[in-house]
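INFO  loader      accepted 1 record
INFO  loader      residues=326
INFO  predictor   begin
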Amino acid sequence: MQDDVIDIRLLEAFAAVMSAGSITGAARLLGRSQPVVTRQIQDLETDVGYLLFSRNGPRISPTPKGILFHAEVERLLLGLKHIRDRAAAIGAGALPVLSLAAIPALAGGIVPIALATVEHTLLPRQVHVQALSAENVVQSVLSQSVDFGLASLPVQHPGLDVQWVCEVPCVACLAADHPLARRKVIRLKDLDGRRLLTMANPYRLRRRVDEAIARAGAAPAEIIDTNSSLTAIAMAKQSLGIAIVEPVLTSSLAMEGVVTRPLDIAIPFLFAAVSPTGRELTPTVAAINDALRTAVTLMPGAKLHGGEAALSEPAGAPEAFERERS
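INFO  predictor   done
INFO  writer      dumping tokens
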């Protein structure tokens, strides 16, 4: 990289090309001429030292390095937008903008419930809620581009203050007409020879699911994995398999055509509320924190732990629940 600092206009041009899919489209988005945007992309490539786009006549497509770089640029530009919003709010004497980041299930299931209970006068005019991967939630809180985050464990990092940890048992989701839908409890060994719908990230919930199924002596015939529990539930609705997911969305949103059943073996889903280390919670963020703590307890079987629980796995290995079987 030739310079220590990259011109923000070059990054804006790059992000616009990635969004529009062409130099011409990016020029229209930015209100700049096509030659200017072309030159800015070339200057950025010179700065970073590698090609961001492959050229084939007038057509361009991002290189593998360009795709990776775009994720970083998006995060930076979003952080800069939040700074502009905060500066405007300060200048107007208004409450600061509130920025939250959460994994998709929590962003869609728990965060709306919590926001709806916060006193209206505590909420600023603008509230940003981002649905991100757990890793990106952590990075956003560390960079202080968001005020508060909810991420699945692990979240160990010296730059994070863990406010609390929630532990809740996973559930099975099946199509309403599935042969096993009549049962009150789904046994993990019933997954033997069937298709499993599960999470893709091997370092978080997926690991616990795989270990529990192995202990039950089951071997799914096929697996479809995804980065979204909502996607897994939608696939279960289409009779593509049995989904094992955290109960966040199933306990907060109506799921027509899908039945939710407890599992005979506890598979804990753990997530934490995190904020930047050493940064005192504002009245607004403190109210959000309290509202989230209350909202998560609405999930069946939810248990709240102190922040120290983020330093280890839940106490005790998953144990069989004594439940009525049909």
